[in-house]
């Protein structure tokens, strides 16, 4: 079983103990510096944790453009494009379902072929002008080069004169008198386009709605071509391990506008319209990767600053070593000059009574420092061994290995007295008796 101890990577170093059982030389300055460094490190850790908890530590964000041959976008319950007529005082609302003057139609184009128009009045709400606001919910757009069986799918919204064939139940066109009255009033159409963006601090998708006013003219038509730039967002925000969330949304919209005449529309499209909004996907897609720092990276951030602070410990470590060397030299010389040596705060010898020459004090310190050398210690032990062999003989010295104390033969008080009386002292020899101090 003892062989398993050879694989122990958690063993502790065997150290000699100094004054009061200490295994390291420690000073007051070192203690104050340690408290300061650890306090600053802890305060910085709390500061970083508060910033991290409040989302004030920004994530790493990478964004690049990618060209895709296949892209599918579904708006769902989010209305991508809204239309409404401004209504002031007693002005008429052309989208009033009981008196429809202008009719909004949604026409999907699949591979360039127009599909059956869809009446958009069923997808509406009351606007801030107390008029109907047309919405484009559940809109599906496809960008494809005929790969994987998908076909190109665009959407076109046109506003035309009311026709009975496009009406739904409980809807009817307005009378000619109302149409003529509508032509006489000043009319403005407002359209809203909705884009989204990711808030890195709140960690959520935010919606931005942009508004645009257009004047209405019966003799011209306004064409607006919109390309939707979508974004694929990957958000990694795990506490310790990876937690990946993916989103897809419209990041931006590019516009191209054009004004045509009524005659041009009839000649080109076969019918007249007053507004035409073409919506399609752009092949340019934004790939966005957002990565929040996890707990391990926060600790690494704090640890890097703590390491810089701990570099101060190198200076303190050098000072402690310097102080330790001075104290050891002082303690050695103290054995030869008891109560005659004066030292300063860092252990340096500043005076020895009876010696006025500083060169003599310096020479004594050099000799004392040489006694700390391991070779000198081995040499002194070997001299003691030879002295004992010469004094008592080799056999007597070897018998010392068999000496033990039989504690069961003594009472506790007798044992302590006996042990005290049998102490054996080897008087230290004068290390400097043969040295001539210059």
Quaternary class: single chain
C-alpha termini separation: 62 Å
SS elements, strand count: 18
Largest sheet: 9 strands, mixed
Low-confidence stretches: 413-438
What is the general shape? rod-shaped
Number of helices: 9
- Look at the structure and give the mean pLDDT: 82
Strand content: 25-35%
Computed structural class: alpha+beta
Q: What's the helical proportion of residues?
A: 25-40%
Order of helices and strands: HEEEEEEEEEEHEEEEHEEHHEEHHHH
Radius of gyration: 47 Å
Describe the protein:
By secondary structure, the chain is of the alpha+beta class. It has helices spanning 28-53, 176-184, 262-269, 295-310, 312-336, 358-370, 374-392, 394-399, 412-421; strands spanning 60-67, 70-74, 81-85, 102-110, 113-114, 118-119, 124-126, 132-134, 140-144, 153-161, 188-199, 204-215, 220-236, 244-261, 275-281, 284-291, 341-343, 349-352. The strands form four sheets. Strands 1, 4, 5, 6, 10, 13, 14, 15 and 16 form a nine-stranded mixed sheet that branches. A five-stranded antiparallel sheet has the order 7-8-3-11-12, with no helix packed on it. A two-stranded antiparallel sheet has the order 2-9. It is rod-shaped and about 140 Å long.
Task: Summarize the entry for a quick read.
The chain has helices at residues 28-53, 176-184, 262-269, 295-310, 312-336, 358-370, 374-392, 394-399, 412-421; strands spanning 60-67, 70-74, 81-85, 102-110, 113-114, 118-119, 124-126, 132-134, 140-144, 153-161, 188-199, 204-215, 220-236, 244-261, 275-281, 284-291, 341-343, 349-352. With 438 residues, the protein is an alpha+beta fold.
